[in-house]
């Protein structure tokens, strides 16, 4: 599913890379990874809607289908966590190789 702001956001990423002196490949990689994350989040939205619809139907068959849907949703949440972790690492290392410190506290948890 395309969003109206996608093209504008990609253009802004490319322009920022040109004007900011950062590695354009790094920005393209980050943009690609964010789109992959968004794809999983969109799938999760669909799964949640299916689970809700099945639950509201109160049909035994539909309720049993929710087990598999919720398992997929749980797996997708783990994927998103890993994807964001990878994005954080890519972003921090991308800035680190260009002489930036990456903000110092990247990747820390409270």
From TrEMBL:
The keyword Nucleus applies. Pfam families: Elf4. It is found in: Nucleus. Keywords: Biological rhythms, Nucleus. Residues 1-27, 91-110 are annotated as: Disordered. Signal peptide: none annotated. Residues 1-22 have a biased composition (Basic and acidic residues). Residues 101-110 have a biased composition (Gly residues). Residues 22-97 form the Protein EARLY FLOWERING domain. PANTHER family: PROTEIN EARLY FLOWERING 4, PROTEIN ELF4-LIKE 4. Belongs to the EARLY FLOWERING 4 family. This is Protein EARLY FLOWERING 4. It comes from Camelina sativa. The gene is LOC104782471.
């Amino acid at each position: 599913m395309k969003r109206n702001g996608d093209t504008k956001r990609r253009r802004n990423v490319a322009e920022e890379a040109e004007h900011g002196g950062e590695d354009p490949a790094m920005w393209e990689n980050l943009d690609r990874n964010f789109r992959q994350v968004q794809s999983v989040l969109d799938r999760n939205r669909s799964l949640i809607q299916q689970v809700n619809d099945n639950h509201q139907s109160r049909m035994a068959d539909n309720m049993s289908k929710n087990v598999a849907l919720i398992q997929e949703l749980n797996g997708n949440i783990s994927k998103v966590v890993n994807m964001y972790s990878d994005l954080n690492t890519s972003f921090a290392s991308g800035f680190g190789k260009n002489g930036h410190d990456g903000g110092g506290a990247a990747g820390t948890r409270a």
